[in-house]
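dumping the sequnces here before i forget
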Amino acid sequence: MGNRIALTGNEAVALAMKQIAPDVVAAYPITPQTEIVQIFSQFVADGDVDTEFVTVESEHSAMSAAVGASAAGARSMTATSSNGLELMFEIVNIASSLRLPIVMPIVNRTISGPINIHCDHSDVMAIRDSGWILLFGENAQNAYDNLLMANRIAEHQDVMLPVAVNLDGFIISHAVENIDIVANEDVRDFVGDYYPEKYLLDEEHPLTMGPVDLQDFLFEHKRQQIETLKIVPQIVQEISDEFAELTGRQYEFFEKYKLDDAEIAIVAIGSTAGTTKAAIDNLRERGLKVGLLSIRLYRPFPADAIVKALSHVKAIGVMDRSESYSNTGGPLFSDIRAAMYDAGETAKIINIIYGLGGRDITVKDLENVIGRVKEVQDSNQIAEKVIYYGVRE
Amino acid sequence: MAQMLEIRWHGRGGQGSKTASILLGKVCSAADKYIQAFPEYGPERMGAPVIAYNRISDHRVTVHCQIEEPDLVVVLDPTLTATINVTEGLKEGGKVIINTDLPAGKMKEKLNFNGELYTIDANGISEKELGKAFPNTPMLGAVIKVTGMFTMDKFMEMIRKEFSTKFAHKPEVIEGNMNCIRRAFEEVKSE
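..and the predicted 3d for all of it:
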């Protein structure tokens, strides 16, 4: 059915794009772009894929072109990273509010300044509240698989929302790992063709998209968008289950690792989740009951399922690779705390902000982090709500 | 974790440490190993010290951090040893391979290192075979010999496949690189 090859994260994502063969890819072909569109443009140039590849003069234009193409009725993609995503920001919100099922891989890198090109999640967290569906993974395999599922989720007739597939910059995007690839014909069958119900080039049914929407109607349209997001998790799961039937790789809203009998939990997003597994293995050998919850679906936030998965633990360390500049910790921390509060759960929760600007976090570091959460469990007290781990103070 | 081999490559920008780590990773992947190959991410400047890494395992590798305690250190440029402690963090019983025309004993003295150390004149070999100092492919041959990962014939067969993809647009360099690997495999020594 498929086979295992060694690729960088960027190559894996570009391969998935080639297999999906969208109608249009619009991209700004220089930094802060990613290698993804460079590799994909080579596929186009070599005639391996018949996508219309539109080179534009900025990331703002890349998303604008993707919006235009998607509104016209084409399956549209772009990819971005870091400051490029921030330049797109205006149109990112338009894509979701126009209900355009654009798919975009994001190679997560920090945003300037000071100037730094390395991994953290500050780029994507800036679009956390933009109405996009946000998927994450810990490795190249997850990025590839999430991308193969993304069009199905975005284009589902009850969804019609854009999806961003995130992968950690450099740590995953530039590292070579093995991935199991799905055969071209299986991808074609799984992803299928895209037949939008409403689109601008439908001459029989002319319509307007994105007109003025003032006090009398905008609120209703936003309400519809919000209602849609409530059913997104269910559809994500249905498509994930179908993907599992095809590949044997089962995805949920999050991955639980040794969590069911754990007294301490780490919650993480991205490649650090993988490194955390090794730390957990080491500490479990020393008798510490620790487990991991690694977020895959971050927006919409599957709060109820997360609360259920964490309801039995006594102390939680939430790992954030970005700040929210609120003096109350990072974005994931806020989400987890709010969810647990609503459920009346009493687990002690602390926040660990780490790895900003690509600072490495090792297995030993994560053992130390778990040690800090263990202290909270033992003392049943939170001495420090937000820990900045691995920074010179 | 015992089955995982961790390698740290030290070189200078332009010498091909990253390429060597990726080639090794791809060959091991083709041999059904789980692998990682990645550089230390930083500014890529010609001549500046650079590091690349490999993890090679029978099980899926979940860690995504740099390697602090390698089993094997490979040094593509002996002048690096003047400024960088290349044996830092090397595991107990870990091995070092250095591109140098000096004997192993002399290098051990220079590095103040008492463990297993191998030398190979990778610059000499590549100047002869490729007409220019590209120490990375000879170092691959040395790594295969020292680790015993593959027999020479098996590795040559597999690396030829990688080269035929990598050098699709300049096939004339394939034989020279194959010779580099073969010679380094034969000539790497610990005395």
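Residues 2-247 of chain A form a domain with the Rossmann fold fold (CATH 3.40.50.970).
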